[in-house]
Write a structure and sequence with these properties.
11 helices
Length: 296
């Protein structure tokens, strides 16, 4: 049995275990309701874009903020819980398409999972203002990465399909940090692609690594968000039920888009969301200082 087969089997087990835990939680939740058409559409569009390599966290956060669908403090958990199973679908589709050194892939995926598990336990307990500041910064960083991508400012990368020695250790440390940052809404795709390129690997090798990392870390870290009720169930379910069809449409029907034009549009949306989130954090502080009640 190959390492890739073991990784895929482990991914299926993790996804099924998360689905069972989440369904059990939904069955016991008070006031359960199915997602609205808008919430389903957000899942469809954002996971469609994610499958094409744009990412889902920043656009989803922007739409949640614009339509006021999720309280700020619950957005990180909702992103991770709701996008988990669509991301697993992405990984199962793409991990078998692009070859990469098994040791490198497993080591980097494992590092991201540990980082996300520790990060989720911290972020799930954060007060709203901390989440607003963290996500505002995350969205600003995402906007910068989109601009760099469009202006072709990323490193070109090399030809290697794996890492060893010092570069492997460095990759493990960086992916651990990227896994932790996922829990406050900083998508892993673009930073992982930059890391892979800077370490001399073929940029195509980033796809199974970044998709595999997210596919493992999101269900595992989401268990903690579910446990602490640090997410919005209805919105997360909308991401999942709308997102899986979005992945399949992007992977098997559309396959490609003029991504540069789409990214410029996403930049505008994300900048709006970053400004809105940081403004909310400032208002939160001002309201607390004045002693007035804070509206959600």
């Amino acid at each position: 049995m190959s390492v890739l087969t073991i990784v895929i089997a482990a991914l299926v087990v993790v996804a099924l275990a998360f689905a069972v835990i989440w369904i059990r939680e939904m069955r016991t939740s008070v006031g359960f309701a199915w997602p609205t058409p808008v919430q389903l559409l957000i899942g469809l569009v954002t996971d469609f874009l994610d499958t094409l390599g744009i990412g889902s966290f920043a656009p989803t956060t922007s739409l949640f903020k614009f339509f006021k669908l999720v309280p700020d403090e619950k957005i990180p958990g909702t992103l991770n819980v709701g996008h988990s199973l669509p991301t697993v679908a992405e990984a199962l589709i793409y991990t078998t398409v692009i070859g990469v050194d098994p040791l490198t892939m497993v080591a980097l995926i494992a590092a991201s999972v540990v980082g996300a598990w520790l990060g989720a336990g911290l972020v799930a307990r954060w007060p709203r203002r901390y989440v607003q500041i963290g996500m505002g910064g995350a969205l600003a960083a995402a906007a910068v990465l989109f601009v760099m991508t469009n202006l072709k400012l990323f490193p070109g990368g090399g030809t290697a399909l794996g890492l060893s020695g010092t570069t492997l250790v460095l990759g493990i440390v960086i992916n651990f940090c990227l896994g932790a940052l996922m829990t406050i809404g900083i998508g892993l795709y673009a930073p992982c692609l930059i890391m892979i390129s800077l370490l001399g690997m073929n940029p195509r090798a980033a796809f199974p690594i970044m998709m595999g990392s997210c596919a493992f870390l999101m269900p595992i870290s989401s268990v903690r968000f579910v446990k602490f009720n640090a997410y919005e169930l209805k919105a997360a379910l909308g991401l999942t039920l709308g997102g899986i069809p979005g992945v399949l449409i992007a992977a098997f029907i559309v396959k490609s888009l003029p991504l540069q034009a789409v990214r410029w549009l996403v930049v505008l949306v994300v900048v709006y969301a970053a400004f809105s989130m940081l403004r909310s954090a400032m208002l939160e502080r001002a309201n607390r200082t004045a002693g007035s009640p804070v509206t959600p």
